Amino acid sequence: MKPAGILAILALCLACPGQAPAPAASTEKPRLNRDEIANIESGFEGALRRVNDNDPPALLGACSGVYLSGYGVVFTVALDLITTPHPSPFGPAPQRGSPEIVNKRKLANLPFLRQSMRDMLMGAAKGLTALPANEKIAVAVRLLYLPGEDKSGLPDQIVMTADRASALAGNFQPEEQ
To answer: Torsion angle, CA of 71/34/123/78, rounded to 10 degrees?
Structure first.
């Protein structure tokens, strides 16, 4: 500590006898273990692959988690709610139904996806013990569609957030866009 800082503390102590100066606010950031975040990422990927064993979604990239100082941890992933049949240069597309049937299949997977996201939030809250209780955990799933696909009733993304304490209690803030 610099001599000027020591003098300032001494001056405060002399000005207010019997009272110690208030401790400075901690500027120390939580030490989140990257391995813990990576385990949550891979666990969520596995859960997404099992959203509906009869009509599984297509994971379109790896789940990515990042810590934002003062906010919390954000996890994102891109997903197709089913393995959507699409044209192929190697032959005819697999026939799994008309656009209306594809839309119904995707709508049927939404409740499974929402539950997986809730489970992931709770699991992240339990696993990230170094995350302060007031900082958030956010899970964002971007849903991708083929051009011209029937998106009736389907969101483009689902975001669930909660501070760590609320997530442990099962209280989430879902938002669909």
So the answer is: 80
> Helix (H, G, I), strand (E, B), or coil: what is residue 107?
helix
Does residue 160 form part of some domain?
A: yes
- Output the pTM of the full model: 0.78
How far apart, in whole angstroms, are the C-alpha atoms of residue 102 and residue 140? 23
User: pLDDT tens digits for 14-73?
Assistant: 444 444 444 444 456 667 889 999 999 999 999 998 888 889 999 999 999 999 999 999
From residue 72, give the alpha-carbon distance in Å to each of 3, 15, 21, 23, 30.
Answer: 37, 40, 30, 25, 10
Residue 98 lies in a domain: yes
Mean pLDDT taken over the chain:
83
* Position 15 in a domain: no
Domain that holds residue 139: 30-176
State the DSSP H helix or E strand holding residue 113, giving kind and residue range, or none if neither. Answer: helix 99-127
